[in-house]
UniProtKB/TrEMBL annotation:
GO cellular component: plasma membrane
Subcellular compartments: Cell membrane
EC identifiers of the protein: 3.1.4.52
Main subcellular localisation: membrane
Top-rank lineage group of the source organism: Bacteria
Region of the whole protein represented: 239 to 516 of 518
Keyword line: c-di-GMP, Cell membrane, Hydrolase, Membrane, Transmembrane, Transmembrane helix
GO molecular function, one term: cyclic-guanylate-specific phosphodiesterase activity
Protein name as annotated: cyclic-guanylate-specific phosphodiesterase
Catalytic activity: 3',3'-c-di-GMP + H2O = 5'-phosphoguanylyl(3'->5')guanosine + H(+)
Naturally occurring in which organism (per UniProt): Siccibacter turicensis
Membrane topology: Multi-pass membrane protein
Domain EAL, chain residue ranges per copy: 23-276
Length: 278
């Protein structure tokens, strides 16, 4: 099938010698991966662009496959969605996050934002609202500000988005439009929905400092965000030069390797404790 082909293509690039044969069943592998605890969550800090104070984190999923090694989320999320496994996988992610929450609480300020990527396949699934309700109840009460990150591309496919988004807001959860600038122009959605954050795709951030003239699209995105009064987050910030430029342009939050890679809980705690804010 197309899916197997896709999966094989991805796994072969891992150069681990492991290839899913057409006889193997990746769907079953995801389920057994959940059972065998092969999935984990890593945390990447989000910092205030002004003071560079850590104001939040984003949860990112990892799959340590026994044969294939580390499989990146871009390679298995879409696959899990197509196999109707995104709900069980996200339920599992919610549990992993809840298990880390008490420790995270000890190193993050009250109201710290906790970004969680939500796949549209899960939003559509019949268990979504129950999953979210249970997830919220599993976190330290009133401490974290949850932010659901939904990609611009996925928003366009979301027909019931208006009512779902208001339901999400009613649960006290904020919404970020992820990878902004890479979709097929969701501009109309910016007016229709109340979205809290706009995450500027790292493709635009990459270009800062490498080109004499910055992207007119990035300029337009920043102007638009300020006119709509939306809070902005730049992702993929790798150099001080980029951070400086974004700060000067009024971007509210920064995220990227310049500050930290996504880290397992223990490493994140050490990073946060040993950090000397600039
Ligand atoms: P995303 O939501 O845009 O996440 C940001 C990605 O950029 C992460 O890749 C992160 O490691 C990477 N990144 C952060 N800072 C930098 C930087 O300075 N430079 C570069 N080059 N990269 C940076 P990751 O963890 O491989 O995740 C890829 C995508 O997979 C995510 O993109 C997200 O769309 C999806 N994903 C990850 N975890 C989950 C999850 O739990 N659920 C769902 N539905 N999707 C997830
Ligand atoms: Ca994200
Ligand atoms: Ca993103
Ligand atoms: Ca992305």
């Amino acid at each position: 099938s197309v899916l197997l082909g896709l999966c094989v293509g991805i796994l072969t690039t891992l150069a681990s010698g492991y290839v899913l044969s057409t006889r193997s069943q990746p769907g079953r592998e995801i389920l057994s991966g959940i059972k065998r605890n092969q999935f984990s969550v890593v945390w990447q800090p989000v910092v205030e662009s002004s003071g560079l104070r850590v104001t939040g984190v984003e949860a990112l999923l990892r799959w340590q496959h026994p044969q294939a090694g580390a499989i990146p989320p871009d390679a298995f999320i879409g696959y899990a969605e197509a196999q109707d496994l995104i709900a069980p996988l996200t339920q599992h992610l919610f549990k992993l996050i809840a298990a880390d929450a008490a420790t995270l609480k000890s190193v993050l300020p009250p109201g710290a934002k906790m970004g969680v990527n939500i796949a549209p396949g899960h939003m559509h699934s019949p268990t979504f609202k129950d999953d979210v309700t249970r997830f919220v109840a599993s976190l330290p009460p009133g401490y974290f500000q949850l932010v659901f990150e939904i990609t611009e591309r996925d928003m366009l496919q979301e027909k019931e988005a208006v009512s779902l988004f208001s339901w999400i807001h009613e649960q006290g959860i904020e919404i970020a439009i992820d990878d902004f600038g890479t979709g097929h122009s969701a501009l109309i959605y910016l007016e229709r929905f109340t979205l809290d954050f706009l995450k500027i795709d790292r493709g635009f951030i990459n270009a800062i400092g490498t080109e004499t003239v910055t992207s007119p699209v990035l300029d337009a995105v920043l102007t638009l965000a300020s006119k709509l009064n939306m809070t902005t987050v730049a992702e993929g910030v790798e150099t001080p030069e980029q951070a400086k430029w974004l700060r000067a342009r009024g971007v509210n939050y920064l995220q990227g390797f310049l500050f930290s890679r996504p880290l397992p809980l223990r490493d994140f705690v050490l990073w946060q404790r040993n950090r000397i804010p600039p």
